[in-house]
């Protein structure tokens, strides 16, 4: 059992809370990032995680912008 798993699910390894918290794909991504970060020095780790978060925020903004554009175009088509 990995440390990330213990942190997420408790030392007992109970998985009953995972479906309520996040999708398995998301959990795997977090565990992968955890291991990549552990391979770095503390200074590198901080910069790495900051970069990951910046990329996530940028991706969310882009996704939200795309969703709004699609909705707007759909509304225009319906108005015609």
Total E-strand runs: 0
What kind of sheet is the major sheet? Answer: none
Secondary-structure element order, as H and E? HHHH
What radius of gyration results from the CA coordinates?
Answer: 19 Å
Helix content: over 70%
| Coarse structural class | mainly alpha
Low-confidence stretches: none
How many distinct folded domains? 2
- Report the portion of residues in β strands: under 5%
C-alpha termini separation:
58 Å
Compute the average pLDDT. 79
Described by the principal axes of the CA atoms, the overall outline is: elongated
Q: With helices defined by DSSP (H or I, 4 residues minimum), what is the helix count? A: 4
Secondary-structure map:
Blueprint: H1 3-9, H2 18-21, H3 24-38, H4 42-79
Describe this structure in words.
This protein has 80 residues and is an all-alpha fold. It has helices spanning 3-9, 18-21, 24-38, 42-79. It folds into 2 domains: 1-39, no CATH class; 42-80. The longest helix has 38 residues, at 42-79. The chain is elongated and about 60 Å long.
Nutshell version of this structure?
The protein has 4 helices and no strands. It is mainly alpha-helical and 80 residues long.
List keywords for this structure.
single chain; mainly alpha; 4 helices; 80 residues; elongated
């Amino acid at each position: 059992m990995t440390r990330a798993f213990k942190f997420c699910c408790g030392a007992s390894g109970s998985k009953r809370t995972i479906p309520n918290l996040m999708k398995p794909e998301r959990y795997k991504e977090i565990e992968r990032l955890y291991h990549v970060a552990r391979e770095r020095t503390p200074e590198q780790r901080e910069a790495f995680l900051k970069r990951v978060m910046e990329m996530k925020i940028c991706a969310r903004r882009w996704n939200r912008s795309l969703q709004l554009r699609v909705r707007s175009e759909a509304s225009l088509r319906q108005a015609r």
